[in-house]
Amino acid sequence: MQNLTKGKLVFEGVRKKLYYSNEPGVFILQFKDEEKSLIQLSEQAQVEGNGTVNNAISAFIMGKMHGLNIPNHFIHQINMREQAVYGIDMFPFTITVRNYATGRTMKHLGVVDQAKLPYPLIEYHMKTMDQSGVAREELITPLHLTSLGWLHEFEVQEIDRIALRVNDFLTGLFAGSRLILANYTLKLGRYIFQEDDDFKIMIGDEITPRTCALWNSHEEPGHKHRYLSEIEIAKRLGLLPRHEDAVHKRPHPLKQVSKSKRA
């Protein structure tokens, strides 16, 4: 599977592209740069866009979850922007797990903003379109999904189990980098085993600072938390070169000129 070649484009979203590969059941997920995403580490060292940073973070987290038998679609990182993933039939909803009171729903319920919840809260969300064509995110219940025949009850139980396992893992992982996981969102789906038509529920898409709300853990109590960026999270996780390392690895242009003159 190391000699994957990119085939036809399957889907293109705002943040990623998905391509067929030459391996049946395996796809190539490419992370795109968002607008104004050139990340400047220093005058001598740059990271060319946040697509590369989010690819590295998601690959790191998904790979760690494999070691804990938390099912996800990640196979391996191909290059700075791309990773090999299994093809899964994605559910038309997302899961959000909240450890702290954040988001529109909490505000409407009158909960103190950013207050710690007594236990993780699992929410199901689905995107809908209103009459004017504007996308809205609606809060739904698992009963909607089972009553409509979209999920079996045992699948809801498995999704909740996966979500809480991920929460335990991510909370510990980020705490080791002095970060608080306020909430995160998962996209899941069914991986179909072609040989016997059985299936397994897996995490798909990405797990990055774009899908997680992360705060500094060393800020003073009562302080209004600031949400941290991709570059800050990647640095905390050790996925970017340190400033001095990045500068050291880039050859100085004057040294290159002097070598060519001697030649």
CATH topology of the largest domain: D-amino Acid Aminotransferase, Chain A, domain 1
User: Average pLDDT across residues?
Assistant: 83
Order of helices and strands: EEEEEHEEEHEEHHEEEHHH
Nearest-angstrom radius of gyration? 21 Å
Looking at the structure, what is the overall shape? globular
CATH class membership of the largest domain? Alpha Beta
Uncertain runs = 37-46, 242-263
Q: What amount of the residues lies in strands?
A: 25-35%
Would you identify the CATH H-level superfamily of the largest domain? ATP-grasp fold, B domain
Write down the domain tally.
Answer: 2
Q: Give the biggest beta sheet.
A: 6 strands, antiparallel
Tally of DSSP helical segments: 7
Task: State the end-to-end distance.
Answer: 43 Å
Question: Helicity level, as a percent range?
Answer: 25-40%
The CATH architecture of the largest domain is 2-Layer Sandwich
Number of strands: 13
* Helix/strand class: alpha+beta
Oligomer: single chain
List the helices and strands and how they pair.
Elements: E1 6-12, E2 16-21, E3 26-31, E4 39-40, E5 46-47, H1 50-67, E6 74-77, E7 82-86, E8 89-100, H2 104-108, E9 116-129, E10 135-140, H3 142-147, H4 153-175, E11 179-193, E12 198-204, E13 212-216, H5 230-236, H6 243-249, H7 253-262
Antiparallel strand pairs: 1-2, 2-3, 3-7, 4-5, 6-7, 8-9, 8-11, 9-10, 11-12, 11-13
Helix pairs in contact: 1-5
